[in-house]
Write a structure and sequence with these properties.
- This protein has 511 residues and is of the alpha/beta class.
- It folds into two domains: 339 residues, Alkaline Phosphatase, subunit A, CATH 3.40.720; 80 residues, Arylsulfatase, C-terminal domain (2-Layer Sandwich), CATH 3.30.1120.
- The strands form two sheets. A ten-stranded mixed sheet has the order 6-5-4-3-7-1-8-9-2-10, sandwiched between helices.
- Strand 5 and strand 6 form a beta hairpin.
- 51% of the residues are buried.
- The protein binds calcium ion (CA).
- Calcium ion binds next to loops.
């Protein structure tokens, strides 16, 4: 008689175990947002240079094949209305501070106006203090002088080139090692220059993976892989360019070959993660840094504008976030930006930030959207200004030159104003290609967004601390490399470092 209840208990226990197992499996497949916060995943942030939103086959490019980026797109959350700044250094400033770049003195890509203000606190600073191993591999572009370099801005391992790209030379401090090239580049590895072997993008990924293998047994890591490709000059591996020869107008096969090489490296990285069983504890973020450049000649995803403009085509970027088993794949349609990355990663890692830093953010955490598309995402206003006015001229003269104000539905653009605005208004919900200026029929929207722009400008203007900084006499990367390897400036170096002769620094008319 006692046998029956005993079997019943056993059977109930079995069912309970079964239910628990199902529940646990479900929880571990897609966690709730509360569970995403504070999980301290490893972080791999990949940022490419001048690859546009359309330079991805998953975004409809008719020529490019990017199978591994497409895999990230398929397996990750993808922000479809994600915006960055219109050029390189400004995007990096906003990404690493969570604040509009003007607040940290960054209003250009050269002429000391690419230097991130020293009082700015970076995401790398915060994560390092929170116990993360932090490494950067590739392009920094927020200041080449020692005190501005990433090893003073939160990164404990650095392998970087100088300037905005390998081999660049500009008047002032911004510039790379003299004569440097994309193949076998000389890179600054912590305190010493190193002659590396291989193509730049391949080197960054390989060295990042070797470094992650070294640090991961002891600490979670932040690996920032920042490619200078596919920015011009299009120095490409011959075998990569050959993949697109005859398929696009020359020399675009070089640009496409550089993107294909990035894609191959993303594939290598995904294999590396899989082989080590790290996919469920590693968030991979893939982003691009401004609107399309060369690629827009083939495909611009139907957008108006490209790199260096304040239209959607200047700022809309690729933004793919894969964290296997934790973030559900699919589109995230809210209006989002590079400014949001810092608050998001702070929430995911549980890192402590001071009240001053938190209150200084222009961005907000993407965690609700990472959990599900359609999550509550209050309306917001994003501001873009291309900057780049001639050095020595008052920023006020360029206040309405190449700037825009964005809400979900509207974008108001002043493409060619100066001291006075010339606003155009676009309903980007119905006119994503920005072909119909509706400012005349929507005066109240224009007035509202224009008033916000005035408040914003007055707010960020005080942060423009690099405008009148005297130019350094030479590029420090060059000087230090000559000290280590010997040599000195060529005629070309002297000419390009002289503000009188470098065409990039010719003053334009103030307006
Ligand atoms: Ca760029």
């Amino acid at each position: 008689m006692a046998a029956f209840p005993f079997r019943l208990v056993l059977s109930r226990c079995g069912m309970l175990r079964c239910l628990l197992a199902v529940l646990l499996a479900w929880v571990s497949t897609v966690a709730s947002p509360a569970q995403l916060a504070g999980r301290r995943p490893n972080l791999i942030v990949i940022l490419t240079d001048d690859q546009g939103y359309g330079d991805l086959s998953a975004h409809g490019n008719p020529v490019l094949q990017t199978p591994y980026l497409d895999r990230l797109h398929r397996e990750g959350a993808r922000f479809t209305d994600f915006h960055v700044s219109p050029t390189c250094a400004p995007t990096r400033a906003a990404l690493w501070t969570g604040r509009h770049e003007f607040r940290s003195g960054v209003s250009h890509t050269i002429l000391e106006r690419e230097r991130l203000a020293l009082e700015a606190v970076t995401l790398a600073d915060v994560l390092r203090r929170a116990g993360y191993a932090t490494g950067i591999f590739g392009k920094w572009h927020l200041g080449d002088e020692k005190r501005h370099r990433p090893d003073r801005r939160g990164f404990e391992e650095i392998l970087i080139h100088g300037g905005g790209g390998i081999g660049q030379t500009y008047p002032g401090s911004c510039g790379d090692v003299s004569g440097n090239a994309y193949q076998d580049p000389v890179l600054l590895h912590n305190r010493r220059f190193e002659k590396t072997s291989g193509y730049c993008t391949d080197v960054y990924f390989s060295r990042a993976m070797a470094w992650m293998d070294r640090v991961r047994p002891r600490r979670p890591f932040l690996a920032y892989i920042s490619c200078n490709a596919p920015h011009v000059p299009w120095q490409v591996r011959a075998e990569d360019a050959a993949r697109y020869e005859g398929r696009v107008k020359p020399p675009l096969e070089k640009f496409m070959g550089m993107v294909a090489n990035i894609d191959d490296n993303v594939g290598r990285l995904l294999d590396w993660l899989e082989a080590r069983g790290l996919e469920r504890e590693t968030l991979v973020i893939f982003m691009t840094d401004n609107g399309a450049d060369g690629g827009s000649m083939v495909f611009n995803a139907g957008m108006r504008g490209k790199k260096g403009t304040a239209y959607l085509g200047g700022t809309r970027a690729v933004s793919l976030w894969r964290w296997s088993g934790m973030i559900k794949p699919g589109d995230r349609r809210g209006l989002t930006a590079h400014l949001d990355v810092f608050p998001t990663l702070v929430e995911l890692t549980g890192a402590r930030v001071s009240r001053r830093v938190r209150e200084g953010w222009d961005g907000r955490s993407l965690v609700p959207l990472l959990e599900r598309d359609g999550a509550d995402w209050p309306e917001r206003t994003l501001f873009t200004h291309v900057g780049r006015w001639p050095k020595g001229t008052p920023p006020e003269h360029w206040k309405y030159k190449a700037c825009s104000v964005r809400e979900s539905r509207w974008q108001m653009v002043s493409a060619d104003g100066g001291r006075e605005p010339r606003w155009q208004l676009f309903d980007v919900g119905t006119d994503p290609g920005q072909q119909r200026d509706v400012s005349a029929s929507q005066p109240e929207v224009v007035a509202r967004l224009a008033a916000r722009y005035e408040v914003w400008w007055a707010d960020v203007r005080v942060g423009l601390v690099n405008e009148d900084v005297p130019l350094a006499e030479t590029n420090p990367f060059k000087v230090e490399a000559w000290r280590q390897f010997g040599g000195g400036p060529t005629e070309e170096d002297r000419r390009l470092m002289d503000v009188r002769f470098n065409p990039a620094t010719a003053p334009g008319p103030a307006r």
